[in-house]
Write a structure and sequence with these properties.
Elements: H1 26-41, E1 46-48, E2 58-63, E3 66-79, E4 82-88, E5 91-100, E6 103-109, E7 115-119
Length: 120
């Protein structure tokens, strides 16, 4: 496993459209594992592939202590709203109040290549 460099505000990769993942490969699984290492090293709770310089549609998150690899994530349900302080690993040391859905369900392809839903 490896800790990857995190690209910060101003990096062009953060503005690029991501590429859908058509097949879960060993290389992408290693990337996901490296992204978890990177996220934890930076005390984050989520990380998207562009933040480590990649354009695949891939994110890793930890929800209530459970790790999730999300290939081609898509929000399928949003309910309510809540304001809370949020930060971003690509904008270091800046935090602000953000309005977000109080409940979301995200559908994605997992490590095993199968669709699943995660709620948060």
């Amino acid at each position: 496993m490896a800790v990857l460099p995190i690209h910060v505000l101003g990096a062009s990769v953060l503005r690029q459209e991501t590429t859908p993942v058509t097949k879960v490969t060993p290389e992408l699984l290693k990337l996901a594992d490296d992204m978890f290492d990177t996220m934890h090293a930076a005390s984050g709770v989520g990380l998207a592939a562009p933040q480590v310089g990649r354009t695949e549609r891939l994110a890793v998150v930890e929800v209530e202590g459970e790790r999730h690899v999300l290939f081609n994530p898509e929000i399928v349900l949003e309910e309510g709203s809540i304001k809370w302080e949020e930060g971003c690993l690509s904008i270091p040391e800046i935090y602000g109040d953000v309005m977000r859905a109080a409940r979301v369900i995200v559908r994605a392809t997992g490590r095993d290549g199968k669709l699943f839903d995660v709620e948060g």
